[in-house]
Amino acid sequence: MKHYKGNQSKQTQIDSNKSFQVLIQKFFLTWLKAQRNVSPETIKSYRDAFRIYIQYLETVHKIKPSAITVFFLEAEYILGFLDFLDKERKNQAKTINNRLSAICSFLRFLSFEIPEYSGLLNRSLMIPFRKEENRQMDFLTMDEYQALTDACEPDSALGKRDRLMLLLLYNTGVRVSELVGLKIQDIIMDTNGLP
Question: For the whole prediction, is pTM greater than 0.90?
Answer without folding.
Answer: no
